[in-house]
Amino acid sequence: MSKRIKLGVLGGGGDSLIGVLHRVAAYMYDKYEIVGGVFNPIWEENIGFAEQIDLPTDRIYKDFDTMIESELKLPKEERMEVVSVLTPNFLHYPMAKKLLENDFNVICEKPLTTTYEEAIELEKIYKEKNKVFAVTYTYTGYPMVRQMKEMIAQGELGKIHKIDIQYYQGWINPIIHDEKLRKNTWRLDPEKSGISCCVGDIGTHCFDMLEYVTGLEVKELLADFNYVYSDNKMDVDANILLRFSDYVKGIIRTSQIATAEENNFVVTIYGQNGALKWGQENPNYLYLLQEGKPQQVLKPGHPYTKKFSLDGVKLPPGHPEGIFDSMGNIYRGVANAINKESIYDEAFPTLMDGVRGVKFIEKAVESATNGSTWVKF
Ligand SMILES: NC(=O)c1ccc[n+]([C@@H]2O[C@H](COP(=O)([O-])OP(=O)(O)OC[C@H]3O[C@@H](n4cnc5c(N)ncnc54)[C@H](O)[C@@H]3O)[C@@H](O)[C@H]2O)c1
Description:
Layout: E1 5-11, H1 19-28, E2 32-38, H2 43-52, H3 64-73, E3 82-86, H4 92-101, E4 105-108, H5 116-129, E5 133-135, H6 143-153, E6 160-168, H7 173-176, H8 190-193, H9 198-214, E7 220-226, E8 237-245, E9 248-255, E10 264-271, E11 275-279, E12 286-289, E13 296-298, H10 307-310, H11 323-338, H12 351-369, E14 375-376
Parallel strand pairs: 1-2, 1-3, 3-4, 4-5, 6-9
Antiparallel strand pairs: 6-10, 7-8, 7-14, 8-9, 10-11, 11-12, 12-13
The structure holds nicotinamide-adenine-dinucleotide (NAD).
């Protein structure tokens, strides 16, 4: 029998944005095989997609409940060991909860849940069950993000005093300015998306990234949201001030109406002795800024990079490491954890990171709806 981890997939069908990223990542290190799932709630689409990607159809189920019931009837060695939850946000909680309760490992898309209360409930079950649970903050898997994290942890920037994270997209422009379209997109529907659009969708990446690379924790925040139209109740743009302590501050600038921006996620960390700047659209270049010295460009795969960074690289320098590779590193970390092989502590974001991410969304919404006041974390 194959030694590969048996992976089930929920959502991520042919009509989805994120499905292909997870499928490629799962196969990247030859550690998983997809054995079934529910790709789409419409049966013809669901089975049609499974056939299209050449999966056996005996374990393509009509819905999530049927999947769990049927999988539990299989002998343990044949059963799905881990399930990826790639559905719209409101389905993450009921799916992840039932999966954990029935002893499946879980890989869940962000945001973990649509409310903090649900996130805490998952945390409780997770602590009882001792299963592996990853939340796919995709960008943490890039080699140069790992490099940033290690350089900061080893004190190479000195004391951090300013953090600036920008995540600018423009894709929602044609939707938000069309009255019909803005009422028909799940990301702008609180029932499906949760209480926030922009901050829930991409602000949460900023928050996770800054805590991941610096090891610092946000203590207070103040958020100002833009909804653009009075009939739209969901933020599409936000500026969020952050306080880590009296002398360490930061800002998250995030937007889905930044006209013509693509996926312009830029992380800048300023310390007493230098700064690091990394952008998702050119992820192989990590810029090191130091007073009185020419700017340096650090790149993946070189012996001068940290072990954790090198661990995330497959080919010699000069072969670009992209978003598929970043997600591939997260999937490999999860596989190693399931197989109880040694892993780097921060090889993948966990349920606890997901819980903090949801808390961040709620706190930002609380601040914005209270007239942009400071809110304690
Ligand atoms: N990590 C990242 O960088 C990143 C990027 C994009 C999206 N996401 C997250 O991934 C999730 C999905 O986003 P998307 O853009 O792919 O959405 P999407 O709308 O493009 O796709 C959703 C998929 O879920 C399927 N689906 C819906 N209801 C279902 C059900 N009841 N059972 C099974 N399948 C069902 C749909 O058919 C579709 O295939 C969201 O939570 C989003 O926040 C994460």
